[in-house]
Amino acid sequence: MKEKVTYTKSSYFLTVLFSLLSLVWLFPIFEVVINSLKRNGAINANPFALPDADSFFGLSNYVTGLTFGNYPFLNSAAYSLIITVLSTFLILLCCSMTAWYIARVDNTFARIFYYLCTFSMIVPFQMVMFTLSFTADRLKLNTPFTIPIVYLGFGAGLAIFMFVGFVKGLPLEIEEAAAIDGCGPVRTFFWVVLPMLKPTLISVGILEVMWIWNDYLLPYLVLDQTKYKTIPIHVQYLKGSYGAVDLGAIMAVIMMSILPIIILYLFCQKHIIKGVAAGAVKG
Question: What is the DSSP string of 85-152?
Answer without folding.
Answer: HHHHHHHHHHHHHHHHHHHH--SHHHHHHHHHHHHGGGS-GGGTHHHHHHHHHHTT--STTTHHHHHH
